Amino acid sequence: MSFLQPAGPVIDLGVNIDHIATVRNARGTVYPDPLRAALLAEQAGADLITLHLREDRRHIRDADVLAMRPQLATRMNLEAAVTQEMIDFACQVRPQDVCLVPERREEVTTEGGLDVIRYFHEVETAVKQLKGEGIRVSLFIDADEAQIEAAARTGATVIELHTGRYAEAEGSEALHELERIKVGVAAGKRHGLVVNAGHGLHYTNVQPVAAIQDIAELNIGHAIVAHALFAGWENAVREMKAIMVAARLGVSLGSK
Questions:
Q1: What CA–CA distance (Å, rounded) separates 228 from 34?
Q2: Catalytic residue among 103, 160, 162, 199
Q3: Alpha-carbon distance values, 179 to 132, 138, 165, 173, 182 (Å)
Q4: 18 in a labelled binding site
Q5: Measuring CA to CA, how many Å separate 237 from each of 61, 64, 105, 185?
Q6: What are the residue ranges in the chain where pLDDT is below 70?
Q7: Does residue 141 contact residue 113 with C-beta atoms inside 8 Å?
Q8: Is position 27 annotated in a ligand binding site?
């Protein structure tokens, strides 16, 4: 048995296909097709497909979500803001997972975690509605004990820890941010939550995060899309999954 094909689940890779749609929308064409990217990613080893339907529809559009839902062989993880429009749409589509995220129209990408404490009532209401449709709910939050405790009280069963600060840091600061993630993972487990992570991870910084034993899933998109320009889409997905699994199992693949 190779570590590339372990006997059971080691760590899941959610491939975010948002930026396939970004390329399509840049020229107003029908290609590249996010659905095709999703299906090829599954064939290459993705354990789920992640996509963020933003308020301004800057990349993924409603039609993409609707077309993809019945076609996926794995799981759909739909990222959505805590607005009634998005919650109602998610309940219509009924993906396996919905990850509630903060969203500001002017941001280039998600800049931080959802403030569950400040918006507790709104988040709790959204969680209840989504769970009523049989959807598993995740909250995208910072690795903060108080936010994690609040997340558990909403009724959500999953959290995704924001790794952006770690991804942007260097040297001792990166080590400090990695330790924050580890503490956050431990806190999530104490509160009975499934703990995922993501944001800003790429081929040379993902290993320490993937090595954290209690992280169930990493969601990665931009780095895979960028690497695919040179390595090909399916190869880029396979490489990321292999790096993650090797890190979890303590196997060295060498540096890229």
A1: 14
A2: 199
A3: 36, 22, 12, 10, 5
A4: yes
A5: 23, 20, 29, 25
A6: 1-8, 104-111, 254-256
A7: yes
A8: yes
Q: 109: annotated binding-site residue? A: yes
199: left (phi over 0), alpha (psi -120 to 50) or beta: left
Helix (H/G/I), strand (E/B), else coil: 121: helix
Q: Is 121 a catalytic residue?
A: no
User: How many C-beta neighbours within 10 Å does residue 83 have?
Assistant: 14
Instruction: Name the burial class of residue 170, with classes exposed (0-12), middle (13-18) and buried (19+) by CB atoms within 10 angstroms of its CB.
Output: exposed
Report the distance separating Cα 131 and Cα 230, nearest Å: 41
DSSP letter, residue 73: S
Q: Which of 63, 51, 147, 59 is nearest to 99 (CA)?
A: 51
Say whether 202 counts as a known binding-site residue. no
d(CA 210, CA 10): 10
Q: Which two tokens stand for residue 35?
A: 């659905």
| 79 is annotated as an active-site residue | yes
Mean pLDDT, rounded, of the chain: 94
Q: How far is the C-alpha of 230 from the C-alpha of 80, rounded, in Å?
A: 30
Task: Specify whether 199 is catalytic.
Answer: yes
pTM of the model as a whole? 0.93
Q: Which two three-digit tokens encode residue 90?
A: 């998610």
DSSP for 204-225, written as a single string: TTHHHHHT-TTEEEEEE-HHHH
pLDDT value for 112: 84
Q: Is 14 among the annotated ligand-binding positions?
A: no
Q: Which of 52, 162, 177, 239 is the catalytic position?
A: 52
